Structure prediction request, 116 residues.
Amino acid sequence: MCWMNFFSANGELQDKKIMITAGPTYEKIDPVRFIGNYSSGKMGFALAEECARRGAEVTLIAGPVQLKTQHSRIRRIDVESAGEMSVASKKNTFCRSRCGYSLCGSSRFPSGGGSR
Prediction:
């Protein structure tokens, strides 16, 4: 394959459904504090844009970021916590051609979930 063909948008993902997760998650400790990370979500958003440009129908599940989606083939679902991201991912995995995860989710879940 020529390297120029790699970057062409010739519809090779036409009729494919792709789910991508991107960005950080915030886990509430109490009403004013949370555990989070510095993930920007830029990689996931770039992947979503490129897949859409190549013809795919993309579901992008995004943590709290300020990034915008440009392509009309991207359906964005905004979430805040890792639990919300997990639920949204499970709901949108059914019948997907491909799934990509480019998030930096929290590996610790505070007990109580900020209900105190």
In short: The longest strand covers residues 17-24. The mean pLDDT is 82. The chain is about 25% helix and 30% strand.
